[in-house]
Amino acid sequence: MMQPESALADDALIEDRPAKAAMLRGWRRRCPSCGNGPMMAGYLKVRESCPVCEEELHHQRADDGPAYLTILIVGHLLAPLILIVYTNFRPDPLVLATGFSVGCVALSLYLLPRLKGLMVGLQWAKRMHGFGEKSA
Questions:
Q1: Among residues 15, 20, 94, 101, which one has the fewest Cβ atoms lying within 10 Å of its Cβ?
Q2: pLDDT value at position 130?
């Protein structure tokens, strides 16, 4: 199905949004548009809009992506570390399990909101899920 020429002309007029800058702002849990306003209203709740620049943020659809990435990163960091610690130091299994459980939870709690912000920033930069719609 072909798009009308006016739709193609409108697409050409839309400027690119810098994905890297938006993702870094999201990592810092800031508005991907201005970088000043807080993106989060709570630990993982994204605000409806930025309190500084009024950019709408409710379009985001991060869903399970941040949790998946958190599990992927934590698993790939801690699994080799467990092997190294166990083979070199041979700690008591209870000490090993307790230490790495605390480390796993702490790293997961640190990464989860930052990865969610990163994903929202990427969605904003790529105009996904309604971020590119013109406001009336």
A1: 15
A2: 87
